[in-house]
Design brief:
151 residues, Ferritin, two-stranded antiparallel ribbon, 4% strand, elongated
């Protein structure tokens, strides 16, 4: 396992969300199904909101917090979703949401672990906030996915 600063972890998380958002936008170009396109748009927006929030967290924190080191192994979007070949043109809304939630679950778990291992109360609070933000956005994405059936 490697070591990263809090700033590096926030930058990685922001990049992960931006990458996922771009992936969903790219998939929108390949689909002809309206419900899948709407879900991809919702998921791309979800990822973009989280990336923007992480950018604000990074820009709004003191250098002392951002420079604290933690044990953290960064993963790639393809590694997180385990099997990128699952992203195909005929993917269902349900399959798409299950894949999307893997990114949220990965980061929630990472933030919770980082919070538990934090050496300062400020960094612990930061990672707890991030875990809560991810959880709230995950719930929002699931609700949006469930409402796709009503469209």
């Amino acid at each position: 396992m490697s070591y990263r600063t809090v700033g590096d972890i926030l930058e990685f998380s922001e990049g992960l969300h931006r990458h996922a958002s771009a992936l969903y936008e790219q998939l929108r170009d390949d689909t002809q199904r309206e419900r899948v396109d709407m879900m991809l748009k919702l998921l791309a927006d979800h990822e973009q909101r989280l990336a923007t929030a992480l950018e604000r967290y990074r820009d709004g924190n003191k250098a002392a917090i951002l420079n604290e080191w933690h044990q953290f192994e960064a993963a790639d979007v393809a590694d997180i979703v385990m099997d990128a070949k699952e992203l195909h043109m005929d993917i269902s809304v349900t399959e798409l949401v299950q894949l999307a939630l893997k990114v949220d679950d990965y980061l929630i778990s990472a933030y919770q672990q980082l919070a538990a291992e934090a050496s300062s109360a400020e960094v612990r609070a930061l990672f707890e906030d991030l875990a809560n933000l991810e959880q709230a956005e995950k719930i929002s994405a699931v609700r949006a996915a469930l409402s796709v059936d009503d469209w």
